[in-house]
Amino acid sequence: MNRILVLCGGRSAEHEVSLDSASSVISRLDRSRYKVQALGIGKNGESLTPERLRSLLDLKNAADVEFPACRNWIAWMAASRKELDAVFPVLHGPFGEDGTVQGLLELMQVPYVGAGVCASALGMNKIHCKQILRQQGLPVVDWVDFHRSEWEEDKDRQASRVLGSLPLPLFVKPANLGSSVGISKIVETAHLEGAVAKALQFDDWVIVEKGIDAREIEVSVVGNLQPRASLPGEIVPSGDFYSYEAKYVSDQSRLLAPAPLSPEQSRQVRTLALAAYRVLQLEGMARIDFLMDRVSEELFVSEPNTIPGFTRISMYPKLWVASGLSYSDLLTELIELALERFQRRRGLSVER
Fold first, then answer.
1. Is residue 329 classed as helix, strand or coil in its secondary structure?
2. For strand 2-9 and strand 34-41, is the pairing parallel, antiparallel, or unpaired?
């Protein structure tokens, strides 16, 4: 029986979402295959106590889950790495989804679910991700980006650059974050400064995207070298856009799985999802998000999510269920993919 460690929480504004996702993952892991451990990381980067993690996960039955007690989660993982068959990092946002934890696990030589170091970093960085997608001929909306220092040095210049390049409305975002944290939609130029200030609370880089009247389409992808795409889904947000509140607080947003698309539109968006997955060299899993212009029906790649949500309402597992793959079987496949990639990469030579 394989021992699987679910790593959750994290030093991120998406900490609470991670815990919600981890609770769902732990509840659905096949106990006939896996012995499950759960290790929590606090917002300060330190270990959560077993008692605290149990409380935060709020599992209905955690009797068969091990909660290691440790003062330093990194030291504990280093000491226990030979006893771990795989790690399932359910860590959303920085210090978990951006290649940092993936690099740690590579150094420890422990198999892990999801994308590798470089692909994780690219998936998190909206600026570099869009640059690569556009360079490879995939459609993305126009954008402007700048660093905190550029904004602080000359706000008027950067604001003029944004407003001179992009028409209203605009979406202002931290470049390295997910779950719609720190995002603002602005329809008046006077609101740009406040939106940038909000984004800079979460990252040093800001990306401003052209807003379009669009449907929000999502596709779940699973696989390593031969990925496959789920049926597409559609988000019908309760507000102007799919904000953090619309995702996790309000129960008014609708998740349509599958999306009401024509067979040709469905084929097109799945093809684009696989193309983006391969261009970014993703492995394991990702949810690829799209914008579909309501008038022209043109599709744009919005962003990949290399550790998508696994909560009870998250689109990634819901789309696989709609495509005929159960939540539990999806988790099993993701772990098998992690083990397959680990064995494949172990065969790489370290000799000249």
1. helix
2. parallel
Contact between residue 17 and residue 319 where contact means Cβ atoms under 8 Å apart: no
**What is the amino acid identity at position 19?**
L
56-74: b (≥16 Cβ within 10 Å) or e: bbebeebeebebbebeebe
What are the distances in angstroms from CA 285 to CA 31, 89, 138, 262?
A: 22, 12, 20, 25
Categorize the per-residue pLDDT at 251 as very low, low, confident or very high, splitting at 50, 70 and 90.
low
Helix (H, G, I), strand (E, B) or coil at 66: strand
| For residue 245, pLDDT beyond 70 | no
Residue type, 349: S
Q: Please state, in angstroms and rounded to a whole number, the distance separating the CA atoms of residues 288 and 35.
A: 31
Helices (H), 109-211: 117-124, 126-135, 148-153, 155-165, 192-199
Q: State which amino acid sits at residue 58.
A: D
**Peptide bond preceding 232 in cis form (omega within 30 of 0):** no
Q: How far, in Å, CA of 306 to CA of 269, rounded?
A: 18
Please write the tens of the pLDDT for every residue from 85-137. 999 999 998 899 999 999 999 999 999 999 999 999 999 999 999 999 999 99
Determine phi and psi for 59, rounding to 5 degrees: -75, 140
Write out the H or E segment, with its range, that includes residue 229. strand 228-229
Distance CA 81, CA 104 (A): 11
The Cβ of residue 201 has, within 10 Å, a number of other Cβ atoms equal to: 10
- Phi, psi (5° rounding) for residue 108? -80, -10
**CA gap 135, 132 in Å, rounded:** 5
Query: Looking at the whole model, is its pTM more than 0.90?
Result: yes
Point out the residues that are catalytic.
14, 179, 248, 287, 289, 303, 305, 309
Q: Name the residue type at position 244.
A: Y
Cα(92)–Cα(11) distance, rounded to whole angstroms? 9
